[in-house]
Write a structure and sequence with these properties.
The protein is of the alpha+beta class and 288 residues long. The chain has a single domain, classed as Jelly Rolls. The chain is 22% helix and 25% strand. An 8-stranded mixed beta sheet has the order 1-2-12-7-14-5-4-3. Strands 6-13-8-11 form a 4-stranded antiparallel beta sheet, with no helix packed on it. The protein has a two-stranded antiparallel ribbon with strand order 9-10. The longest helix is centred in the N-terminal third of the chain and has 13 residues. About 3% of the residues have low confidence.
Amino acid sequence: MDVSTLYEFTDAFEVTNNVKQTFDEYGYVVIRNLLNKVELEKLKGTLEGDNARAKYGFARDDGMGKKAKYLCWNHPGNDVTGLLARSEKVAGTFEKLLGGELYHYHTKLIMKDAFEGGAHNWHQDYGYWYHNGCIKPDMGSVFIAVDKADQTNGCLKIVPKSHKLGRIDHIAVGDEVGADPERVSQILPVLPLVHAELEAGDAVFFHSNVLHRSEQNSSPNRRWAFIIAYNRADNNPVKVHHHPQYTPLNKVPNSALLNCDEVANDEGKDFFLGQSNENKSLKERTVD
């Protein structure tokens, strides 16, 4: 990973001009230790103990013999996961990187379990969100490593500066939708990929047009990722879709996460149900 995109989170961390310029140039920044050990254990305990995974979780065939597992919801809520999504260190940081007021678009837990976790094809998030009525790509995601992620268990692969290429056509691959493989094969020799190898608690903040993917997990080590997607308030979708239109985000101080007694509460989160893709159009065949 390019060290120029790496930053360390401390209580004094700020989005300086240098951080913003790095994000604008590469399309992403990595912030080490965004969650400290106590915050990380609180998040892990919440995710592992939440019965929403059994009620609302679903899997998608990666087209290569394995399945990726998902849990996805539209509104942050007031529990540990919701306060993390509303925290200054996450939402406040990303508002400065994306240059304006944000709202919560959705949150995903992606579960690549040991030996069986499916791959995710090359894609841009805006390749999906474009079809949701979002006119501009003024959107992005915060990828927080719940477990250590490296090349053995399917870490994130990113193509730096690919957000400058504009939206790439996406096509169906298995149960998923991915960027046109021919176009990707033309891009990679020009803009080589990097492996976002992360320790648990590290995070990647990336633009919605950044090309990225991840491989299958054939290792004995689980790789879960907690991903929060945001949209700029001034990019309110022009049509009603399965993710929310502008909903004001009530940000909270970073201390709210540790002070939260509401470990897991599904109320008001509006979970996305992973219906079968049979008879669905291309633009509907995605969790994003």
